[in-house]
Amino acid sequence: MAHPVIGRRLGCRPAETRAGQPLLGGLRMMARRAPARLIREGIDPAPLMLGNDRLGDCTSAGIGNHVRATAALAGYQVAVRDADAILFYERATGYTPADPATDRGGVEVDVLACAARGGYALEDQVLYPVWGSAAPDDLNAVRLVMAGMGAAYLGVQLALADQAEGGVWDTTTPGDQTPGSWGGHCLLAWAYDGVEEESVVSLLTWGGIQRATWRWVRSRIMECHGLAWRQLMPAGGLLDGQDWEALLAANAAFLEGAAPAR
């Protein structure tokens, strides 16, 4: 990948859409105004690196960390190993450890379809998400996904200015602010302290929590998806029984009509 940074690899390929992919727009939860704040200071989502310091497997690491964030909201935790994330990365993208040239990252919708079809295998269980996409330019929708489905699974176009470690990612920091000048990355949007442009959003990536402003999110975001895990008994949120059934039906229809993802 271009512009490698030690300990922080990218790997989200340009956003794509697939015919019939599940959408969140028709769900009842998406018709609401998002909470003015989503404060989760007392909850540790315990994000892990999951191989993303040496491989472009951020799309797989994002799913593994979504599992952990969902569990944390329910008051417990689920073990996810580097080996689990890397094995899924192989299955979802065609990466072969013996051939570094195959470490080309993943397309989020195809990676999510692979997880929904074949599961995300951990050491002692296989978890199956249901998922749907929201409009990335609708930040209220992004916030509703965060509040209703634990965290938002985002594809972002990072700029070279974002390589500076520490501090808050913002569009006002020094350096090249061109979205995508560093590359594409998958991360999770977890919490926020307000909805103003300068309000701070907590992002889960590279085994930690990175803070950013909403104006930064608006600048960098290229796609937004919500995941839900029936097996993990989602805690609270806005996703009710009717929305669950609608999302399950949309996923089933998509998987029935979609060609198997690599």
Summarize the structure.
The protein has 262 residues and is an alpha+beta fold. The protein contains 6 helices and 8 strands; from the N terminus they run αααβββαββββαβα. The protein has a single domain (35-252), classed as Alpha-Beta Complex (Cathepsin B, Chain A).
What's the mean pLDDT score?
A: 94
- Shape designation: globular
The helix fraction, in percent, is: 25-40%
The total count of helices amounts to: 6
Q: Radius of gyration, rounded? A: 17 Å
- Would you report the number of β strands? 8
Q: State the order of secondary-structure elements, H for helix, E for strand.
A: HHHEEEHEEEEHEH
Please write out the topology.
Layout: H1 58-73, H2 82-93, H3 108-118, E1 120-121, E2 126-127, E3 130-134, H4 139-149, E4 152-158, E5 183-192, E6 200-205, E7 208-213, H5 214-220, E8 221-228, H6 241-257
Antiparallel strand pairs: 1-2, 3-8, 4-5, 4-8, 5-6, 6-7
Helix pairs in contact: 1-2, 2-3
Structural features, described:
The structure is a single chain. The chain has 262 residues and is an alpha+beta fold. The chain has a single domain (35-252), classed as Cathepsin B, Chain A. Helix content is 28%, strand content 18%. The protein is built from 6 helices and 8 strands, in the order H-H-H-E-E-E-H-E-E-E-E-H-E-H. The chain has helices at residues 58-73, 82-93, 108-118, 139-149, 214-220, 241-257, and strands spanning 120-121, 126-127, 130-134, 152-158, 183-192, 200-205, 208-213, 221-228. A hairpin with a 2-residue loop joins strand 6 and strand 7. The protein is globular and about 45 Å long. The two termini are 21 Å apart.
